Amino acid sequence: MKPAGEKLPVAPPMPAAQKSAPSARSGVALRLSPVIGLACGIVAVSTASLLIRFAQQSGANSLAIAALRLSVAALVIAPAAWLRCRDELKRLSRLDLLVGLASGAFLGLHFATWISSLQYTSVASSVVLVTLSPIFVAIGSLLFLKERLPWPAVAGMIVAVAGGIVIALGDRAVGMEGANPVLGNALAVAGALSIAPHFLIGRRLRVRLSLLAYISVVYSAAALVLLVAVAVLRVPLRGFDPQAYLWVVLLALVPQLIGHTSFNWALGYLPATYATIPALGEPIGSTLLAVAVLNEPLTPARALGGALVLSGIALMAVARTRRVSNSSM
Question: What is the pLDDT of residues 155-186, one digit of tens each?
């Protein structure tokens, strides 16, 4: 899974030469391919919760899964980032590196808490509650960046919080060994809370770096912080069932790299209104996969609470999109 509620950076507009298709058939292909890319991205990130659950069932510790996931992703990205963004990376100041380390630390905390939540609660509850992150980003922007919240965004926050309460009150049991829905749901909310500083702090670095350079710095920082935490807490990274390592590698490659790369590419060719689809599509896709593959029941409380949370997040996103559009006129 991506950091939930992430404001995905939008690529530059499509060059005019690409917009003017030489034939009707190629024009259709250009219009359809970003939509297909967006759909593929949603499917890819929706597999994250299943892969995590499989790794946990294979004996892997949740903190170890988070550390290995970010480490594999950082190692895969590093060569490409160095070849294509070497000059950008060399220009980084000491302050930039500290910002990247802080942003990566919160990203690592996000993955550690959210992945741990899947050990105790249902996929449906976990992926929906971690989607509450835009609320904490909005509150942080209001407190620290003095960004005003339009009333539709406030209404969206209220609706989303109400949905979270419905899930928390209705999640009595999740039908799995070691279930502790109260703890699991709290960890999912902690995952939503911890990603907010990652976005707020990372803005300083992201505006000056390309996407590839930025994620290479932040993923590397997150991996470093998690590896230090693993060492301090003496969490083993070896000795798991070989299948656990397979699930972790797939977790790094499919949801972390392929999924979010597809999002960032597709959204560069689609209207701004499409930017909310990844945040809303991932919980839905993850829940459907959990029902089909893990046989997790979709209780009325989870369904109602999830609908309220996603509706509230959508309302917040629409309000933000309208505000940005009006300010650019």
Answer: 999 999 999 999 988 876 566 656 889 999 99
Is pLDDT of 278 > 70?
yes
- Tell me the CA distances in angstroms from 175 to 52, 107, 119, 300, 303, one per residue in order: 17, 30, 12, 15, 16
Instruction: Find the DSSP H helices in 150-268.
Output: 151-170, 181-206, 211-233, 242-251, 260-266
In order, the DSSP letters of 46-86 are HTHHHHHHHHHHTT--HHHHHHHHHHHHHHHHHHHHHHHSH
Give the closest residue to 280 by CA, choosing from 322, 310, 255, 315.
310
- pTM for this structure? 0.84
Kindly report the three-state secondary structure assignment for every residue of 209-236: CCHHHHHHHHHHHHHHHHHHHHHHHCCC
Does 129 fall in a domain?
yes
Contact (CB, 8 A) for 60 and 246: no
Is there a domain that residue 30 lies in? no
Which residues form the domain of 163?
51-327
Who contacts 291 (Cβ-Cβ below 8 Å, separation ≥6)? 124, 297, 298
Secondary structure of 269-290 in HEC code, one letter for each residue: HCCHHHHHHHHHHHHHHHHHHH
CB 226 within 8 A of CB 67: yes
Distance of CA 217 to the CA centre of its chain: 17
Does the structure show a pLDDT above 70 at 26?
Answer: no
Secondary-structure breakdown of the chain: helix, strand, coil percentages, each rounded to the nearest 5:
80, 0, 20
Total count of residues recorded for the chain: 329
How much is the average pLDDT of 235-261? 94
Count of domains in the chain? 1
In a domain, 207, yes or no: yes
Tally of CA atoms within 13 A in the half-sphere of 267 that contains its CB: 21
Position 13 in a domain? no
Mean of the pLDDT values across residues 323-329?
58
Rounded CA-CA distance 198/111 in Å is 12
